[in-house]
Amino acid sequence: MPISRILVSLCLLFCIYARPAMADIDPAEYQLPSSVRTEQERKRLEAEFSTDKLKEAQLQRLEEVQAAQKQAADKAAWDALPYPVKLTQTRCTSCHVAKTFESQRHNRVGWELLILRMQYLNAAPLGPGERSLIAAHLAEAYPVKGVASFVEALQQFALLSSPLWLWVVWKVTRSHQRRR
């Protein structure tokens, strides 16, 4: 046990006090350049510095102008959107990515039910009347097509008529229980 500790200690000491590698490195490359020695060289360096500073300031002003133009164009594009599109983007994209709408296809009732579920189960922040506006926009922008529309209509019929079917089943079982 003590021999292994001695070996580990020696290895650590060797690693800590390792000698510099012998490579073909010129130490002159790592020395600081000499200071400015002539007045003419100093003036030339000051002129270069001031022109670089002016170019940097101009570039910064140009970037600020471009950013302001982009912001104005984005605001104009946003203002040009219809209200239901703005409402959908502000309310729905706070939780979802915009691609979510493209992958889901529903009819008007399907979107209404989906938004209703989000509103009551997930506490989606919707004001009065906003659910129907968003559902109408999504039904128009991302409608269900083909056989999927028939399947969705059947699902919605089953869902919406389930209270009726439950009532009928309850009445039938209750009548059978009374006969016994």
Could you explain the architecture of this structure?
- With 180 residues, the chain is an all-alpha fold.
- The protein has 7 helices and no strands.
- Helix 3 (83-92) crosses helix 6 and helix 5 (108-121) crosses helix 6.
- The termini are far apart.
- The relative contact order is 0.06.
Q: Level of helix content?
A: over 70%
Structural class: mainly alpha
CATH class of the domain at 83-152: Mainly Alpha
Radius of gyration, in angstroms, nearest whole number: 37 Å
N-end to C-end Cα span = 88 Å
What is the approximate shape? elongated
Number of helices: 7
Number of distinct beta strands: 0
Multimeric state: single chain
- Average pLDDT, to the nearest integer? 80
- Beta-strand percentage range: under 5%
Task: Report the CATH superfamily of the domain at 83-152.
Answer: Cytochrome c-like domain
Low-pLDDT residue intervals, each spanning 5 or more residues: none
CATH topology of the domain at 83-152: Cytochrome Bc1 Complex, Chain D, domain 2
Largest sheet: none
